[in-house]
């Protein structure tokens, strides 16, 4: 199997949790995809980086990140996977709100002003979190080239309506969660 198939197996085996849950969007579901069980796993995290780099290989960007917490391990996996191929790729973290102390930065890490960046998320249902990150990035002067997620739960239309290309490594159907 290749990286894409291997990561899919990790997601199905480790991240898909059955039972009633309320999503960050406020919607209810009979199952949950807890991708932190994958993005923070010693064998799966490197796959996340390689799969998302492959998914976005035709997009030009030199920094990656998104709204904390879902995007953080995704961006770091991509940073490390890129480093293993001698590609220069920085990562950043977008806070939900600006800090009231220190440097009072909303975006942590290397400066994104004037840079082409990729916004990422582990999974997205409505696009709310990743679009919040996109708004902060644009306010900071970044050129957001697109949005990429590991698992799409339906955010594609909202992201594309905001004028951004959208890609997901897996759909719910890929994971056997819908017909």
Low-confidence stretches: none
Largest sheet: 6 strands, mixed
CA radius of gyration = 16 Å
The CATH architecture designation is: 3-Layer(aba) Sandwich
Q: Total domains, how many?
A: 1
Mean pLDDT: 93
Description:
This protein is α/β, with parallel strands linked by helices. The protein is 33% helix and 28% strand. It has a six-stranded mixed sheet, with helices on both faces. Strands 1-2 form a two-stranded antiparallel sheet. Strand 7 (143-152), helix 6 and strand 8 form a beta-alpha-beta unit. The longest helix is centred in the N-terminal third of the chain and has 13 residues, at 3-15. The model has no long low-confidence stretch (mean pLDDT 93).
Question: Could you give a quick summary of the protein structure above?
Answer:
With 179 residues, this protein is an alpha/beta fold.
């Amino acid at each position: 199997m290749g990286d894409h198939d291997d990561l899919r197996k990790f997601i199905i085996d480790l991240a898909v949790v059955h039972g009633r849950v309320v999503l960050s969007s406020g919607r209810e579901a009979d199952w949950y995809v807890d991708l932190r069980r994958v993005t923070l796993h010693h064998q799966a995290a490197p796959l996340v980086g390689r799969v998302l780099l492959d998914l976005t290989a035709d997009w030009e960007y030199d920094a990656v990140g998104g709204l904390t917490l879902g995007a953080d391990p995704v961006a770091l996996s991509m940073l490390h996977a890129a480093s293993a191929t001698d590609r220069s790729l920085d990562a950043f973290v977008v806070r939900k709100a600006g800090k009231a102390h220190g440097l009072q930065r909303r975006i942590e890490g290397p400066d994104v002003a004037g840079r082409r960046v990729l916004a990422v998320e582990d999974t997205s249902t409505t696009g709310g979190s990743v679009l919040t990150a996109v708004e902060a990035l644009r306010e900071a002067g970044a050129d957001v080239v697109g949005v990429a997620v590991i698992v799409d739960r339906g955010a594609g239309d909202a992201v594309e309506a905001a004028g951004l290309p959208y890609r997901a490594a897996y759909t719910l159907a890929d994971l056997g969660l819908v017909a």
